[in-house]
Design the sequence.
């Protein structure tokens, strides 16, 4: 059975691109969120295998959403995805419960190989 | 799960050679990119205007940062490196403002506006598929320079720090979902349709209306009740179709005015004045063709107001006015028309100066000196006459108001001017709500037929030739100038007749609405009086008149676009092409 993924990004552009990549890699995108609050809610209701969170989002950032999701003790693996790539942010993502970090611009191979190694 | 998984990258930006989307087809995403980038650019413009006026709270600054960040990310993915670099530089600057290392001084917002314009230009190039070039370095350098200048100031931060990871919680309504999620597949109730589709639909209805009118002529000859009923039902259906299409074409005035704050900012900054803009009634809807035509006249009127109406700050203070000038755009309905008033609280039009300029431009001195103030104000609408002391790079060259008036007339509207010395000027545009199908009266001159817009006609009278003496007809107590329509349109005079038909029309362009500007210059409200004075009428002399018809009037296109005295053409049920007379143009010539 293919793994289920929840995507959270405020930009439709990236949600569409990411969805295309994931579908090519045989993943099933079960939900999309446009901000951190929606991401946490959908994580609870959809119980996906993987949650991909953008860092810079309105209402609640991806980092704050990751922290909340960790407290929920879900099975889902959290992957951060951003064009912000400095060490401070990556470190904070790690502390927030993320287990991988994908750097934008999205690269099909990078995305798929990162998810395979989870 | 281990640390080896982490692709920690120390530089903020991936190298320029980073493969965008790798093997993916980027063209698929271009449309999405353009749409979203346009939305973010609009968001940035709004945010910067707020920032400049010190109205930006932390939520606005955060939103601005995200807009830049979004454009940067999408551009990087698409491989639009210059846009990505430019957005990145601005994002950096915004991040410094966000973390309070910089305060948004005027120099900074100006630079951001310049960069935004450059970014817009690049996005346009993407749209046009032209090469982006790689000349964003000067902008990036400029941003660096303003950041360094600000950080060397005592309260400035020490150095440019990497963007902060931690973001303050942002109080903002949740962003609308751009696309439906997979769990909830629904189509939107709103559909995007290209404007030209409605133009074509309207054109089809126009043809139907004209075909119907020839059937209506046939019903008068027919005895068949079924036929008459059928035509009646068809008429009702076509009218309903027409109404629906017209309402689909209606757009709120705000669609046009939302770009104005930026226009005002640019002009007022260039002229060193402070000007605020207030817009009332922007939710009112107008046909898109009319709204579209209104764009450049509106900008022109506002340029005039800022450049020549509103005084310098020193002059305003001396006159006891607030330093900041105010421009008010007020839109409201008056029956089937929309009135758009643009008022400023500047110095008003100097009548003596205008009169001198009109004489210099070749108008007879006797005529000019006998003009009332309200007639003199309209002189600014003649080619070559300007109220400006100086020619700026935006206005004051004496071309402009005549063009503005021409455009408004062409849209089937009127333009009026009111002014009070020291208190300001108000330009009043009266426009039809919709365009295209208008009620007209058929008139004949010799063998030619013409259409006159019914809305301009006050009365139709048959008179004997004796009652017209030296080009004037006594209408009630007033002397009304008589204009032979045929001669005005350049036709040769036919043999004299015993009887003529006079069409009394309003000539609003010289009409008389008393100025109602008060001297505080703030409450520039009040509606115009309805009845035109005697001087506001002209009698058009024709040989005969016929039916009233609903005509689908098409605009004149090159090569006959600038035909004098007519404003449109319609094709009658029998295939004859008939011109719609431009009453404003014909009568204004009579007054001149």
Sequence:
């Amino acid at each position: 059975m293919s793994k289920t993924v929840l995507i959270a990004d405020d930009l439709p552009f990236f949600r569409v691109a990411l969805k295309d990549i994931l579908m090519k890699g045989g993943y099933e995108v079960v939900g999309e969120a446009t901000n951190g609050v929606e991401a946490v809610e959908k994580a609870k209701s959809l119980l996906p295998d993987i949650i991909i969170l953008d860092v810079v989002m309105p209402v609640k950032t991806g980092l704050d959403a990751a922290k909340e999701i960790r407290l929920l003790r879900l099975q889902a693996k959290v992957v951060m995805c951003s064009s912000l790539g400095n060490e401070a942010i990556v470190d904070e993502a790690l502390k927030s419960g993320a287990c991988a970090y994908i750097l934008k611009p999205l690269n099909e191979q990078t995305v798929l190989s990162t998810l395979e190694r989870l | 799960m281990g640390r080896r998984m982490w692709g920690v990258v120390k530089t903020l930006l991936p190298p320029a050679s980073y493969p965008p989307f790798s093997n993916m087809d980027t063209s698929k995403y271009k449309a999405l990119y353009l749409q979203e980038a346009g939305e973010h650019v609009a968001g940035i413009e709004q945010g910067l205007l707020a920032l400049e006026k010190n109205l930006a709270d932390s939520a606005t600054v955060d939103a601005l940062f995200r807009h830049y960040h979004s454009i940067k990310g999408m551009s990087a993915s698409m491989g639009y490196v210059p846009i990505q670099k430019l957005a990145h530089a601005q994002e950096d600057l915004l991040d410094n403002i966000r973390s309070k290392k910089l305060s948004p001084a005027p120099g900074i917002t100006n630079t951001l506006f310049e960069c935004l314009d450059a970014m817009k230009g690049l996005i346009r190039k993407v749209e046009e598929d032209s090469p982006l070039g790689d000349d964003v370095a000067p902008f990036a350098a400029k941003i660096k320079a303003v950041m360094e200048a600000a950080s060397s100031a005592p309260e400035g931060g020490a150095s440019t720090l990497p963007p902060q990871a931690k973001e303050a919680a942002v109080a903002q309504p949740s962003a609308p979902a751009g696309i439906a999620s997979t769990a909830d597949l629904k189509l939107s109730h709103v559909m995007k349709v290209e404007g030209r589709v409605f133009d074509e639909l309207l054109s089809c209805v126009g043809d139907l209306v004209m075909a119907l009118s020839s059937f209506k002529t046939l019903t008068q000859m027919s005895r068949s009740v079924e036929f008459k009923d059928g035509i009646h039902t068809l008429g009702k259906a076509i009218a309903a179709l027409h109404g629906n299409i017209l309402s689909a074409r209606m757009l709120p005035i705000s669609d046009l005015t939302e770009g104005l704050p930026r226009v005002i900012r640019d002009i007022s900054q260039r002229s060193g004045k402070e000007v605020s803009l207030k817009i009332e009634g922007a939710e009112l809807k107008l046909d898109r063709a009319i709204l579209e035509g209104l764009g450049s006249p509106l900008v022109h009127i506002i340029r005039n107001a800022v450049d020549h109406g509103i005084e310098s700050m020193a002059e305003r203070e001396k006159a006891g006015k607030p330093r900041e000038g105010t421009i008010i755009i007020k839109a409201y309905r008056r029956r089937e028309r929309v009135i758009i008033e643009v008022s400023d609280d500047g110095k008003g039009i100097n009548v003596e100066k205008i009169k001198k300029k009109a004489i210099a431009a070749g108008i007879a001195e006797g005529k000019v000196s006998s003009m009332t103030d309200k007639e003199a104000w309209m002189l600014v609408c003649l080619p070559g006459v300007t109220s400006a002391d100086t020619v700026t790079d935006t206005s004051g060259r004496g071309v402009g108001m005549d063009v503005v008036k021409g455009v408004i007339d062409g849209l089937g509207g009127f333009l009026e001017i009111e002014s009070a010395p020291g208190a300001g000027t108000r330009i009043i545009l009266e426009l039809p709500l919709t365009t295209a199908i208008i009620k007209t009266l058929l008139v004949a001159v010799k063998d030619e037929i013409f259409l006159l817009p019914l809305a301009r006609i006050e009365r139709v009278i048959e008179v004997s030739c004796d009652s017209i003496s030296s080009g004037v007809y006594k209408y009630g107590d007033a002397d009304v100038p008589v204009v032979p329509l045929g001669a005005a349109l350049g036709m040769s005079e036919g043999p004299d007749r015993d009887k003529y038909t006079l069409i009394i029309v309003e000539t609003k362009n010289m009409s008389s609405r008393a100025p109602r500007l008060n001297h505080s210059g703030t409450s520039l409200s009040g509606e115009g009086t309805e009845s035109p004075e005697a001087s506001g009428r002209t009698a058009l002399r024709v040989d005969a008149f016929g039916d009233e018809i609903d005509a689908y009037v098409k605009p004149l296109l090159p090569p006959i676009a600038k035909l004098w005295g007519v404003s449109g053409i319609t094709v009658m049920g029998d295939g004859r092409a008939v011109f719609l007379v431009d009453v404003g143009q014909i009568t204004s010539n009579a007054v001149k």
Chain B has four domains: 11-151, 195-248, 251-432, 437-522+534-591. DSSP finds 17 helices and 18 strands in chain B. The CA atoms of residues 348 and 420 of chain B lie 5 Å apart.
